[in-house]
Amino acid sequence: MPEIIEVEAYRGAISATVGRRIAEVHAPDEWFAKGDTTTDALRSELTGALVEAARRIGKLVVIDTDGPRLGLRFGMTGKIVVDGAMPIDHLLYDSARHEPAWDRFGLQFEGGGAMVLRDPRRLGSVQLDPDESRLGPDALTLTLGQLRNALAGSTVALKARLLDQRRVAGLGNLLADEALWRARLSPIREARSLDAPETTRLHRAVGTTLRVLGQRGGSHTGDLQPARVRGGCCPRDGAALSREQVGGRTTYWCPEHQL
Fold first, then answer.
1. 1 pLDDT band (50/70/90 cuts)?
2. For the chain, what is the total number of helices (H) and then of strands (E)?
3. What integer pLDDT is reported at residue 93 of this predicted model?
4. Alpha helices in 98-222 (DSSP H)
5. What is the side-by-side strand order in the sheet with 69-73?
6. Is the pTM of this model over 0.90?
7. Among the listed residues 227, 76, 154, the one whose alpha carbon sits nearest the alpha carbon of residue 162
8. Which value, to the nearest 10 degrees, does the dihedral of the CA atoms of residues 235, 241, 243, 244 take?
9. Class of domain 137-253
10. What span, in angstroms and rounded, lies between the C-alpha atoms of 12 and 85?
């Protein structure tokens, strides 16, 4: 599933479209347009616009044009295709097949070339002028002070707080489990319960997780990942992993060393 590592790769691929003018908009699915955006608005407002920049905040990619801003979200199986090439061609819960109907949105450029958002499970979305202020600090540049503020006073489970994109933008299920496993912290603790050394340890673990898994090639390459199955055992100490729902997501953690 695309988390911040994958979405940053998407942003990099989309940056190849900067300086191109949009000749045609492919928007066949009204459901895929979110907020007040309609497919008619996508076609009328983006056709003829010049792409000026491709930015990312958490798991949201924003394409700046000389007209509106275009926000792209990728859900669980959304992928980007730019000029026929894909920076990531397979995701953990993706299908190896391709059906034309899975091309939910696209931009055709003057002079040739295209960008396509391909999403088999139809859980992503596109939106004109998305509200970027609703997102918290980006996980790749997260400071210790920002993490401390995100956790302060919260009685919700620690993992649920990390997954709240209003608090920290970019972490998803796999990255949160890996970071908490590396930090030796239980995902079910109250977020506010962390003391200063534990918060520092978590901050370091988030940074290490993003750096190491980014170098390996994806959010699915964590040390914990092979054991995230029923009956899995902790790669660190061999203890049976706990499996439960935290923040609405299936969570694996080691009750022996994640305290």
1. confident
2. 6, 10
3. 66
4. 144-151, 158-163, 173-183, 196-216
5. 51-57, 60-65, 69-73, 125-128
6. yes
7. 154
8. -110
9. mainly alpha
10. 12
CA distances to 46, 175, 233, 244 from 236, rounded to whole Å, are 51, 17, 9, 20
Each residue of 98-110: pLDDT tens digit? 899 999 999 999 9
In this predicted model, what pLDDT tens digit does every residue of 5-27 receive, in sequence order? 999 999 999 999 999 999 999 99
- What confidence tens digit (pLDDT) does each residue in 217-239 have? 999 999 999 999 999 999 999 99
Structural domain boundaries in the chain? 4-133, 137-253
CATH topology of domain 4-133: N-terminal domain of MutM-like DNA repair proteins (3.20.190)
Q: Cite the DSSP H helix spans in 65-106.
A: none
* Cβ 203 vs Cβ 162: under 8 Å: no
In sequence order, what E strands does the chain have? 22-26, 51-57, 60-65, 69-73, 79-82, 103-109, 114-118, 125-128, 242-246, 249-253
